[in-house]
Amino acid sequence: MRVTLSELMEKLGVGYSLSPYETFPWSHYDEGKEETCSAEVRMGPEGEDVEVEVMMVYDNPPAGKPGFEQLLWMKALPKMQGKWTMSEIRVRQEDYVGKVYDWETKGCSLFRAIVQALRTGSIPNFDELLQREFHSRERYGDKSSSGGGKQPKIRPSQLLDMKKGQGF
User: Fold this and answer.
1) Angle in degrees, CA 100, 119, 124, rounded to 5
2) 133: exposed, middle or buried (C-beta count within 10 Å: 0-12, 13-18, 19+)?
3) Strand order in the sheet with 68-78
4) If you average pLDDT over every residue of the chain, what do you get?
5) Structure confidence at residue 1 (pLDDT)
6) Residue 147: pLDDT band by 50, 70, 90 thresholds?
7) Interatomic CA distance for residues 105 and 130, integer angstroms
8) N- to C-terminal Cα distance for the chain?
9) Which of 75, 104, 147, 166 gives 20 to 30 Å between its CA and that of 137?
10) Do residues 23 and 41 touch, judged by C-beta distance below 8 A?
């Protein structure tokens, strides 16, 4: 995925290109569950990178869990001719680079789905969104439903019916 900075910002749900040191945040607090989900896009101090992060903060963390959890972290870097590309992605601290087909685009789609939930005033179901954005549309995921099989051999003479002298 190589896109301009403005296209990258659009894929992440930010309506304009960020300036150095600028941050674009979203957040929602659920009083019933006593948890906060926050998401943000940050531009580096020299405009040399873009970081994307989604965090959960728990007022009363579940047993055995810390008070916060980093769900998603991504980093984009400028490449040649002003085009940007995702260079790193971690989901719950696990490196996802190359684990799924087109991980860069799917990472942006996952982040944007999270932002969409936050904009509507709800805590996103991260596991459900991860499954939907990363695995349900996997290009090579479900080979049994793709039909498959060998391609038939078709000779050009059969298509043009050359034996009878009929061309186009």
Assistant:
1) 45
2) buried
3) 23-30, 35-43, 50-58, 68-78, 84-91, 94-95
4) 86
5) 87
6) very low
7) 13
8) 42
9) 75
10) yes
| Residue 89 one-letter amino acid | I
Pick from 53, 97, 48: nearest CA to 71? 53
For the four alpha carbons of 127, 133, 139 and 142, in that order, the dihedral sign comes to positive
The owner of tokens 């400028």 is 78
Q: Mention every residue, 6+ apart, whose C-beta is less than 8 A from residue 155.
A: none
Between CA 158 and CA 13 the distance in angstroms is 52
| Better-scored residue on pLDDT, 144 or 123 | 123
Q: How far apart are CA 90 and CA 159, in angstroms?
A: 52
DSSP at 143: G
Tokens encoding 95: 């490196």
Within 8 A by CB and 6+ apart from 151, the residues are: none
Tokens in use for 80? 């040649």
Beta-strand (E) ranges in 1-49?
A: 23-30, 35-43
CA–CA separation, 43 vs 17, rounded Å? 9
